[in-house]
Automatic annotation (TrEMBL):
One of its GO terms (molecular function) is ATP hydrolysis activity. SUPFAM superfamilies: P-loop containing nucleoside triphosphate hydrolases. Residues 16-249 form the ABC transporter domain. Belongs to the ABC transporter superfamily. Drug exporter-1 (DrugE1) (TC 3.A.1.105) family. Coiled coil: none annotated. It comes from Thermofilum pendens. This is ATP-binding cassette domain-containing protein.
Length: 334
């Protein structure tokens, strides 16, 4: 086993009941993970790229011992996540997309000191470690404010600081920049790159293709609980190299339009996403290979009854890889 974080055939199912509070219908089994396998190497940033509901957070929770898999195996830093959970927890820092774990009536510094005690850190070391982390994450000026006064970005950075208290070699970051303003998101990305330079192995989940492209050494694209491709950003984008991308803005399209476009000769992938449900404003993104194909695509759109508003030619991105592999856009699958 060469990977620091290894997942082999992970399966996770959740059982829910249809209906509301007053009526409970039949049970429904949701397959959150369907045989997820990958390896993150020592010292790299490994990304799980996929839309909401794809299985990213479930994967993180299994790897961090918060959930048990229904099938499959996983190891972190050489320790089995099921048989050696305490050893795994000693090796990892976890930042999930949630601020519910903080005590809002304590300051940021007091929260970190409380969690440092749970880690049994020496008080003098903890104070110095907290000072360093507050400075690293640009929180020193707000360290003695109550957490209830913190912005979303400040809470996200405090979450990362908590994950780093015990100086773990492996870090799990679940959507670390979601909901942040551009300045806060940029600072978090800078910190992630700094942590990599320190030699940590970082598993990062995101649905942001720009973030994945910028930060990750390798990426696993995940859709509907399955890994559909793994590679460097360059290797993944090479899957659509030589192809062209067009984004067509349309009004009130038939929802079957993308499926019809996929059948056009020379089309490599297509996906339709609704931008404004009230007006029916939508975007059709198509990967194709020639001017002849583009002409047929636009003709098909025009004959479908949808109003064509604009056409833009674009450079291929990781989202186009996702479309080519899944037939859906990053913002719509799940």
């Amino acid at each position: 086993m060469t990977g620091v974080v290894v997942a082999r055939g992970l399966v996770k199912r959740f059982v829910t009941r249809e209906g509301g509070l007053l009526w409970r219908g039949r049970k429904r089994v949701v397959e959150a993970l369907r045989g997820v396998s990958f390896e993150a190497r020592r010292g790299e940033i490994f990304g799980l790229l996929g839309p909401n509901g794809a299985g990213k957070t479930t994967t993180i929770k299994i790897l961090s011992t918060l959930l048990l898999p229904d099938a499959g195996e996983a190891w972190v830093n050489g320790y089995d996540v099921v048989r050696e959970p305490n050893k795994v927890r000693e090796s990892i820092g976890v930042s999930l997309y949630s601020d519910r774990g903080f005590y809002w009536k304590l300051t940021g510094r007091e929260n970190l000191m409380y969690f440092a005690r749970l880690y049994h850190l020496d008080p003098a070391y903890a104070r110095e470690r907290i000072r360093y982390l507050l400075e690293l994450l640009d929180l020193e000026a707000d360290a003695d404010r109550l957490v209830e006064e913190y912005s979303t970005g400040m809470k996200s950075k405090l979450n990362i600081a908590r994950a780093l208290l015990h100086d773990p070699p492996v870090l799990f970051l679940d959507e670390p920049t979601i909901g942040l303003d551009p300045g806060a998101a940029r600072k978090v990305r800078e910190v992630v790159l700094h942590l990599k330079r320190e030699g940590r192995t970082i598993l990062l989940t995101t649905h942001n293709m720009f973030e994945a492209d910028m930060l990750c050494d390798r990426i696993a694209i995940i859709s509907r609980g399955q890994i559909v491709a793994v590679g460097t950003p360059g290797e993944l984008k090479a899957k659509v190299s030589g192809h062209r991308v067009v984004e067509v803005e349309v009004l009130a399209p038939d929802q079957r339009l993308a499926e019809a476009v996929k059948r056009v000769e020379g089309v490599f992938g297509a996906a339709l996403s609704v931008k404004d449900p009230a007006s029916g404003l939508s975007e059709l993104r198509v990967i194709y290979d020639s001017d002849d194909s583009l002409a047929k695509i636009l003709s098909l759109v025009a004959s479908s009854g949808a109003k064509l508003l604009s056409v833009r030619s674009l450079e291929p991105t990781l989202e186009d890889v996702f479309i080519a592999l899944t037939g859906e856009r990053l913002g719509q699958a799940g």
